[in-house]
Design a protein that fits this description.
The complex is a heterodimer of chains A (255) and B (287). Chain A is mainly α. Helices cover 77% and strands 0% of the residues of chain A. Chain A starts with a helix and ends with a helix. The chains are: A mainly alpha (255), B mainly alpha (287).
């Protein structure tokens, strides 16, 4: 009884609580914001739901159904997945493991390389800094189709072709991450803090380790996210560098 | 001492970035017969071949159209969505941010299937919408004039989530004191977004512009998907420069011409990037 009482009391000044609910967005602003966000949600999600449902339907029903977003049957779903897993004598799971290993190792390596580089480019004054920034840009502009043969020859020279390192080592070179770290430290690391630490006699290395790295937690998450995603989807690298199907990752294996 | 922190990167860049790039430069002056290179033997032939190709101006024209459409739209909508999500931090916004990101995980054959089915009004979940705008079949949606927009929409589908996450990271770096001061001055959510957050996002927006530009110059996957054997779309097999370079390398085995064309793409990309970097002061140190 008590609780119901309080509930009605809260609801009573209806207009006021609605205003409070929409807050400083304003009622019209609230609706506009929600509408835009939901329209984009539909754009991003509906194709995925459709794809997910497509695995549950038999091919003819894809065309015949009056409503495009229909769920087929559980049997179909089980059959589709059994087909996928049994594909190539169960190598699918092997590829999955490879994908995780390649993406994981590339991620760790690329972070260890690009965060200190981005940091020093953002706060350091040293000859060659601009050259490094320009070269980073140029390497990002180079299309994979031009890089693939030189990389192959290089890795061949080092006898790394057809090993996992032929995929992982090139992926550890991550210029996008260097630029992102550069922007992050440039925008959110207070210069006074760095200067104070230097005045107190901290070496560059210590400033980085004790000050800059702990501040980089949001950056770390973001970079990990992007790097893992890029390497998870890496097709061209493994496709060219590996010819043992036991070493394939998922994108190459499924192709 | 500064060099020590950059050293691992410098080494990796030399081996996996600059080294291969220089080799590509050498390749662009070399002749390839049966895959065996004869260095410097081609002189400028590969460049002449590329310039003389009837498709050359076509693919760069296409690319220009695509850049004009995709760069401003991509950045505009990413910044808009990032700001809208940031107005009300909380579970709903976090969930949407994650949701926007998920399409980035769809690649390979699944993406081909998806693109073809979504663009076919007879089976697409957006079919009713397409029919409402008068597109009743695949060809009514996929035609030369619509391609820059289609590739933009496809690229945005798989890439926007990542950029929204990056801009979100930038927005989180804005100090709460600044936001609180704005609130004390009577700013509402929209004014905060427009007058406080947007200007402070500048370095990240510049970063995104430069990278989107660099990535979009290399457009490859989206047009390639539409020319896959499954579809009978009236899309030329080489729509973008990167496809043409790829075709030189892997259809004809002329790696020299592929390298020459790739370097021309780099040159064009660099011109754009130089303008952006000079204008924005991206390489300048703060303070």
């Amino acid at each position: 009884m008590m609780t119901r009482q309080t509930a009605t009391n809260q609801r009573a000044p209806g207009r006021l609580s609605l205003k409070r609910y929409v807050g400083d967005l304003g009622i019209i602003g609230y609706v506009i914001r929600l509408a835009i966000l939901l329209i984009f949600a539909i754009y991003f999600v509906v194709p995925l739901v459709w794809l997910l449902f497509a695995t549950t339907r038999d091919p003819t029903s894809l065309y015949s159904s009056w409503f495009p977003l229909t769920f087929g049957s559980i049997d179909r779903l089980v059959a589709s997945w059994t087909n996928v897993i049994a594909y190539q004598n169960g190598e699918m799971l092997l590829w999955l493991g490879n994908s995780i290993r390649y993406a994981g190792l590339s991620l760790l390596g690329s972070l260890a390389i690009c965060i200190p580089a981005g940091y020093i480019l953002a706060i350091g004054r040293f000859p060659g800094r601009r050259v490094l920034l320009w070269l980073t840009l140029i390497t990002m502009l180079l299309p994979v189709s031009a890089m693939v043969l030189p990389l192959f020859l290089e890795l061949n020279l080092a006898h790394l072709i057809n090993t996992q390192w032929a995929v992982i080592l090139p992926a550890m070179f991550f210029p996008f991450g260097v630029y992102l770290s550069y922007v992050y430290y440039g925008a959110s690391l207070p210069r006074e803090l760095v200067d104070a630490a230097r005045v107190d006699g901290c070496s560059e290395l210590r400033v980085f380790w004790n000050l800059a790295l702990p501040l980089a937690r949001p950056l770390l998450g973001l970079l990990a996210f992007i790097s893992f995603n890029a390497n998870w989807n890496n097709f061209f690298g493994p496709y060219v560098m590996l010819n043992d199907d036991k070493l394939y990752n998922l994108p190459v294996g499924l192709n | 001492m500064s060099y020590l922190l950059a050293l691992p990167y410098i080494i990796f860049m030399a081996i996996f970035g600059i080294g291969p790039a220089l080799y590509a430069l050498l390749m662009s002056f070399s002749k390839f017969s049966m895959g065996v290179p004869q260095y410097w033997a081609a002189g400028l032939d590969n460049y002449k071949l590329a310039f003389g190709d009837a498709r050359f101006f076509q693919v760069f024209g296409n690319l220009l159209e695509f850049l004009i459409v995709s760069v401003p739209l991509g950045i505009g909508f990413v910044v808009l969505l990032a700001l809208l999500l940031d107005m009300r931090p909380g579970r709903f916004s976090s969930a949407l941010r994650l949701l926007y990101f998920i399409p980035g995980a769809v690649t390979g054959p699944a993406l081909v299937l998806l693109v073809i089915c979504i663009l076919d009004p007879t089976i697409s979940p957006f079919g009713p919408l397409f029919k409402a705008i008068g597109a009743t079949n695949f060809d009514a949606l996929v035609f030369p004039g619509s391609l820059p927009f289609l590739f933009t929409i496809m690229g945005f589908f798989s890439g926007a989530g990542m950029w929204i996450a990056i801009q979100h990271g930038g927005l989180q770096g804005i100090s709460t004191e600044v936001i609180e001061a704005a609130e004390l001055d009577g700013c509402n959510a929209w004014q905060k977004a427009l007058y406080i957050k947007l200007p402070l996002m500048r370095p990240y927006i510049v970063y995104q512009t430069i990278l989107i530009f660099a990535l979009n110059v290399q457009l490859f996957v989206e047009p390639q998907l539409l020319t896959s054997t499954w579809v009978q779309a009236n899309v030329p097999p080489q729509w973008a420069p990167n496809q043409l370079a790829y075709s030189y390398a892997f259809d004809v085995g002329n790696f020299g011409a592929a390298a020459a064309l790739s370097l021309l793409m780099v040159a064009i990309g660099l011109v754009g990037a130089v303008v952006l970097i000079r204008w924005s002061g991206f390489f300048k140190l703060e303070g």
